[in-house]
């Protein structure tokens, strides 16, 4: 009798309980039938983890945008750099990290817009080595890698990098356009109180690069500078000969931005830009006089003056202006748009 009762109990377990356990195991593992039997749970778990890592890498790649080919001048080689990483390196190299975050964001837009324009239009001038789109020098935009910046910033690296990274991430994928095309996002350090019309420096009118006041720049340590050049060097650099009466050349006209448009010597007329570049002056807003056999030149501002004044951008940010306020002030009638339609992000 006991054997019959024991057999009946075992039959009930087999019929009712085991199927329930199997259903629960299969439900929890879904198609992981082998795992339900404990045959390869670790192997399956590792595979799932690997898939997750690959997904994170792909997501990071997408977040950082497409690659841009950068000619690294010291290594004399082309490096493929994710666009947002490139923008971080440019912002960190071109604008002081102690500037306001909104100014850094404005710089990020300028840097990204320039890069996208190069990616869209290519190297039209053919002046970038080995098929790259940009160099890492002032010929385009100065770029330094994260490791190079660590060496440069030393103990300040972590705080500086976090600030730059925030500025770039908060504007990720944004560029400036005019008539649907990325603009020439020129920028410079310090104005003489006004930015310059593009046509007054580059002899080519650009509708969004117009002279605007930038009063914040007057507080810049590079707002005013003085350069002293021996007369012989001055003459050689400009290809002219000065009179012995102490006169120099006659400044015939100034631009809308207050910089020298033309200066006339006895038998030669030069533009303010030509004088600035020949004498390596801070700005083409200059005045001069002769003293003790030397030409003393006072300049106002630092840079070509076209586009966004970096010091002005920081001044606007200190007054509570956003990066959108800043770029739309210095670049007239531009739109802030996603770069996705111009340069695919994947």
UniProtKB/TrEMBL annotation:
Q: Which PANTHER family match?
A: AMIDASE ENHANCER (PTHR30032:SF4), N-ACETYLMURAMOYL-L-ALANINE AMIDASE-RELATED (PTHR30032)
Q: What is this protein called?
A: Stage II sporulation protein D
Q: Which residues form the Sporulation stage II protein D amidase enhancer LytB N-terminal domain?
A: 72-178
Provide the species name. Shouchella clausii (strain KSM-K16) (Alkalihalobacillus clausii)
Q: Which InterPro entries match?
A: Bact_Sporulation_Assoc, SpoIID/LytB, SpoIID/LytB_N, Spore_II_D_firmicutes
A biological-process GO annotation:
sporulation resulting in formation of a cellular spore
State the GO CC annotations.
outer membrane-bounded periplasmic space
């Amino acid at each position: 009798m006991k054997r019959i009762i024991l057999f009946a109990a075992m039959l009930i377990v087999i019929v009712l309980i085991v199927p329930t356990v199997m259903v629960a195991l299969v439900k929890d593992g879904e198609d992981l039938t082998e795992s339900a039997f404990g045959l390869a749970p670790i192997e399956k778990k590792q595979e799932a983890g690997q898939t997750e890592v690959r997904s994170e890498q792909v997501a990071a790649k997408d977040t950082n945008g497409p690659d841009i080919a950068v000619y690294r001048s010291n290594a004399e080689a082309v490096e493929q750099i994710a666009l947002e990483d490139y923008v971080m390196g440019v912002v960190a190299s071109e604008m002081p990290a102690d500037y306001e975050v909104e100014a850094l964001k404005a710089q990020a837009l300028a840097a990204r817009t320039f890069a996208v324009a190069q990616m869209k239009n290519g190297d039209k001038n053919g002046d970038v080595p080995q098929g790259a789109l940009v160099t890492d020098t002032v010929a385009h935009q100065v770029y330094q890698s994260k490791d190079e910046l660590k060496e440069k910033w030393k103990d300040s690296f972590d705080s500086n990098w976090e600030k730059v990274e925030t500025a770039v991430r908060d504007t990720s994928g944004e560029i400036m356009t005019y008539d649907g095309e990325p603009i020439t996002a020129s920028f410079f350090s310090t104005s003489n109180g006004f930015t310059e019309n593009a046509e007054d420096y580059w002899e080519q009118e650009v509708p969004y690069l117009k002279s605007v006041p930038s009063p914040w720049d007057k507080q810049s340590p590079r707002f005013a500078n003085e350069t002293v050049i021996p007369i012989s060097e001055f003459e050689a650099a400009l290809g002219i000969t000065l009179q012995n009466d102490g006169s120099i050349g006659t400044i015939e006209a100034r631009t809308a931005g207050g910089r020298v448009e033309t200066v006339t010597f006895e038998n030669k007329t030069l533009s303010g830009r030509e004088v600035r570049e020949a004498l390596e002056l801070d700005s083409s807003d200059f005045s001069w006089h002769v003293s003790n056999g030397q030409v003393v030149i006072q300049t106002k501002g630092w840079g070509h003056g076209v586009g966004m004044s970096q010091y002005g951008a920081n001044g606007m940010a200190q007054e509570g202006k956003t990066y959108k306020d800043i770029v739309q002030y210095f670049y007239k009638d531009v739109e802030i748009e996603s770069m996705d339609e111009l340069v695919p992000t994947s």
